[in-house]
Amino acid sequence: MSSNTPAVSEYLESIQRLTRDLRNAAITLSDREARYLVDAYYASQRDRIRAAHQERTLAQGSEPHDIVSWLSGQRETLENQIRRALAGYAGANPVGVWCQSIVGIGPVITAGLLANIDIKQAPTVGHIWRFAGLDPTDKWNKGEKRPWNGSLKRLCWLIGESFVKVSGNENDVYGKVYKVRKELENERNDALRFSDQAKASLEAKKFGADTEARKHYEQGKLPPARIHLRAERYATKLFLSHLHCVWYWHEFRKPPPKPFVLSLPNHTHFVAPPNCEMFPGLEAALAAAVSAQSTDAHETTSHEFRPTSPADNRESSASSDRPAAKGEGAKPVEPPKKRGKRAA
Asked: Pick the residue with more confidence: 162 or 297?
């Protein structure tokens, strides 16, 4: 069918009108509408991937697949429209602009974070971790209401996966945190530091005798998949702590009450959020808050303020099993920098 036919021309024109309308209307989306669109985006993405697989299968069997191909194209168009709408919603918020300045974080993930987290209900980053299902002390017992937000928990998993994918990017921060943390987790696993967890896993669940997971647990070790997830969660929680920091500053014009710190032997340093210069005054306020915290505590250990740098990853990751503090935004200077592969 030619693109010059009236039917096709009318269809393309409607798509163009929809694009312009979305661009203008997206900034007025409510948080509830944005949450719905984020879920719709990932549902559409799953449908598109499934349709593409069906199309390839039909093509291999020499069966007609024009309709399937058309449907796949429609899903991709819808997916892109939703993405544009969420980009408008995320870009209208300075915190959303900061999120998208981070390698691996795109408009869909940013919109999901903005729509699911209420900074006014999160005085510390621990509240966000708990709400996202990243608090290891939280258990979902049978017959009880789920103690975390399922959509936000899945979003945090996607964040971790995205950081892994961009870890080779020279401008990446959190992907490198993941790599260094994974190395540390493997060292501890080889030293049988997680033997109690391995034993508990064997007692809690039945594993096939020939499964790789069971073999690792019987050796007193965690399987590679769990080491991967532990390192991902560490990087994701560090990112969330930085998100909380800039968001709290943007909302209340003061640093969060409990700045995120990583403890080292006889030394504590505050890991500042990347690109915090996008929020004028934040970096100086954080440095002053950390200094005041040290003075008030009358501690013998020193406190030092540091900007985030990939070079700090080994030192930071070696400090503890997970980010140490349960607790722990001023206009953006510039839009997010362009980064190679497009992030969700």
From this structure: 162
